[in-house]
Amino acid sequence: MREVAILGVGQTAVREHWDVSLRQLAVAAGQAALADADVRRVDAIYVGNMTSGNLNEQHHLGALVADHLGQRGVEAVKLEAACGSAGSAMRQGIMAIASGQMEAVLVLGVEKMTETVFPETTSALVTAADADYEGVHGITFVSLNALIMRRYMHEYGYERGDFAPFALNAHANGAKNPHAFFREPITQNIYEKGRVVADPITLFDASPIGDGAAALLLVPAEKAPQAARVVGSAVATDTLAVHDREDMLWLKAAEISARRAYAQAGIGPEAIDLFELHDAFSVMAALSLESCGFADRGQAVRLAQAREIFPDGRVPIATMGGLKARGHPVGATGLYQIAEAVLQLRGDAGPAQIDGVRTAMTQNIGGSGATIATHILRR
Amino acid sequence: MREVAILGVGQTAVREHWDVSLRQLAVAAGQAALADADVRRVDAIYVGNMTSGNLNEQHHLGALVADHLGQRGVEAVKLEAACGSAGSAMRQGIMAIASGQMEAVLVLGVEKMTETVFPETTSALVTAADADYEGVHGITFVSLNALIMRRYMHEYGYERGDFAPFALNAHANGAKNPHAFFREPITQNIYEKGRVVADPITLFDASPIGDGAAALLLVPAEKAPQAARVVGSAVATDTLAVHDREDMLWLKAAEISARRAYAQAGIGPEAIDLFELHDAFSVMAALSLESCGFADRGQAVRLAQAREIFPDGRVPIATMGGLKARGHPVGATGLYQIAEAVLQLRGDAGPAQIDGVRTAMTQNIGGSGATIATHILRR
Question: What is the pLDDT of residue A118?
Fold first, then answer.
């Protein structure tokens, strides 16, 4: 099988896009990726999205995007794995090119979730969990992660303020990214004054939803030798419900998919120059670092406190804001992560540029860890 | 690339399954397919479904099905293309095996849509159309197809009663299929007494929704030389909105995907022994036959009146009831079609058996024709 390269990148800013519709967001990102790649016609379009059926009264996004992007007739479909939808779309696109069956594939993530009346968005997000055994009890997605954070703090002896570095790093980096939702740095004091959302998760432990779209144009690597290449790609799943996990403080699907990706790339975590992880909540960032081998169990918070997650650290994360500051248009996030990794590899990350990036890792999580898509890119 | 065979088939009956949940339906079909294939572990699961986020408050079906089917950890994702979801899942599964990347893939379609309070299901189904330009005007999916049927009758000079053979054939065949939703034959008189749903569509021109799941276990053909093989597989799209179609009485995506599948198989429509087409509405059956080359424009109704669509005709359709009588659990239908085609090819269709079937075609349509997945199987 042949290698896959990312020839084009497109993204909209993550905002409350009051004047821009779902399809307009998708078209903007898609057109930008096609223009960046200088490609006019694709063989297929894979669209990642989670909530359009609930919040936009629109399913059938594959055909919709193909139609409005001027790619009428092409094969197209939507992939859904909750907040892991875009990472899953990337996986399908890679497989289509690697297999030799397609020559140019557009993978696109889009989500428009802010023009709703509460509690629509909150209840739409619960569908990422187990409806019959978690949702039925009235959990929200934040409260579910709060249970995990509480357990993490208990088992490893942390206090709420210990998680601040994740937010400080994310917001500092978001301030350097014009596409980010939040573009102001914050201080430890601001972090600690954050209101409780679902104890112990406070305002600055939780990522914001938003509207946005990100797209990538994939081609065989031989056609784009200068472009960033995919050297590792894997998706794994875990139990849907948190209470069924073998260990609620271990992301098994992250471990499995990361190991597969490392093996495909012939490397280990020490070779990763930056890690766009899924910091939907600060505790998820910690668990991701541990489950992928960047820190021992319970030590990711210490790693963060030692500033190893900052741009000059050993494993920079959320380098352009992450979910926390760049924002989390849920079904699009996985492709924002990869788009940012590509910009970093190209040296096009502007003020957010991490020096000497050659190998970047991205990880997109669906739900509380039930679907995890890990990719490793190199240039 | 290598050929793909269908080693295992599983399906539940299509019913109002008051006592069976979404996941239980999926597990029943999945376990049946695995047992039929005598395979214990798969490399990936592709799940087709349309409305679970709206009607079951449950997204994330890939991980859910992997978890509850005892396949924890495997790669899994949901594919959605409205009523074309299951055909799209089949396409992804075929690509994964054909590419050499996977050795055993489960493709599964599931839908549970009858335990809702009106108008939830009706509004959920409108999401298959264009929300901003069709849905906003208050169309239902039936009324949208009614516009098409009205135009068809006008352009080709038909009356409502002329469409009866589609329903008569479907119900007669459904009566021979214990998995079918409707299992009684009907007469011309019964057809003509059918109440108007959305003029000119009457009760017997429209397929019933239902609850059900169907699954297939795919392997490389070299591992299962006796099994039914996929000799053609293609997905194409068209404009989402009916009013944007080049010709509202031509399914361009059916034409494109069928031509590609014919070419892959090295045949034409004359070589097809049976056609499990997407008879969501009788007019869709007619347009499918015409767009795939089984009848000239406007002549499919005459073909049906000449009984060529019946079991002893030139192109048997809905051989085990079709959407009309077997039922239409929307996101699962595409895999019911293929499961039935496999049973026919195996000689396992019981009283519904069509004699001498060697080559079967299936076609799954999303929305009013915006996504169409065509498959050709041979044994």
Answer: 67
Alpha carbon B36 to its chain centroid, in Å, reads: 21
Using CA atoms, how far apart are residues B229 and B377, in angstroms rounded to an integer? 5
- Report the CATH number of the A4-117+207-378 domain: 3.40.47.10
pLDDT digits (tens, 9 = 90+) for A313-333: 999 999 999 999 999 999 999
Element (H, E) at A122: helix A120-126
Short-list B340, B120, B147, B376, CA closest to B241: B147
- Do A293 and A269 contact (CB within 8 A), yes or no? yes
Strands B359-366 and B274-276: parallel
Residues of chain A contacting residue B235, judged by C-beta atoms under 8 Å apart? 75-77
Catalytic residue among B171, B179, B278, B328: B328
Please give the interface size between A and B, counted as residue pairs whose CB atoms are below 8 Å apart.
215
Residue with tokens 């889009």: A110
Q: Please work out, in degrees rounded to the nearest 5, the angle formed at the alpha carbon of residue A129 by the alpha carbons of A127 and A134.
A: 110
pLDDT category at B119 given cuts 50, 70, 90 is confident
Query: Does B130 contact A64 at a Cβ distance shorter than 8 Å?
Result: yes
Residue of B83, B171, B278, B292 marked active site: B83
Break chain B down into helix, strand, coil percent, rounded to 5: 40, 20, 40
Separation in Å, CA A129 to CA A87, A94, A133, A216, A334: 18, 27, 9, 28, 18
CB atoms < 10 A from the CB of A360, how many? 27
Of B58, B63, B367, the CB nearest to A131: B58
- Does residue B116 surpass a pLDDT of 90? no
Q: What is the DSSP string of B347-368?
A: T--GGGPPTT--EEEEEEEETT
**Residue B118, CA distances (Å) to A200, B8, B114, B121 in order:** 40, 37, 10, 6
User: Is A112 an 8 Å CB contact of chain B?
Assistant: no
Flag whether pLDDT at A119 surpasses 90. no
For A237-279, the pLDDT digits (tens) are: 999 999 999 999 999 999 999 999 999 999 999 999 999 999 9
pLDDT digits (tens, 9 = 90+) for B129-157: 999 999 999 999 999 999 999 999 999 99
User: In angstroms, what separates the C-alpha of B261 from chain A's closest C-alpha?
Assistant: 13
Q: How far apart are CA B14 and CA B206, in angstroms?
A: 16
Check if B292 is active-site: no
Contacts (Cβ under 8 Å, ≥6 apart) of A186: A167, A168, A171, A204
B122 touches chain A (CB under 8 A): no
B106 near A CB under 8 A: no
Burial-class residue A18 by CB neighbours within 10 Å (0-12, 13-18, 19+). Answer: exposed
Find, among B335, B366, B327, B363, the residue nearest to B127 by Cα: B366
B373 DSSP β-pair partners: B235, B364
CB of B265 within 8 Å of a chain A CB? The answer is no
Backbone angles phi, psi at B111, to 5 degrees: -150, 135
Q: Give the minimum alpha-carbon distance from B99 to chain A in angstroms, rounded to a whole number.
A: 5
Which of the following is catalytic: A17, A83, A179, A292? Answer: A83
- Enumerate the domain spans of chain A: 4-117+207-378
Residues in A 126-165 with any Cβ partner in B closer than 8 A: 126-132, 135
When CB atoms are compared, the residue of A21, A77, A88 closest to B81 is A77
Q: Does A305 touch chain B (CB under 8 A)?
A: no
φ/ψ bin of A16: left (φ > 0), alpha (ψ from -120 to 50), beta (otherwise): beta
Whether A77 sits inside 8 A of B58 (CB atoms) is: no
Query: Is residue B118 predicted with pLDDT exceeding 80?
Result: no
Q: Within 13 Å, how many C-alpha atoms sit on residue A160's CB side? A: 19
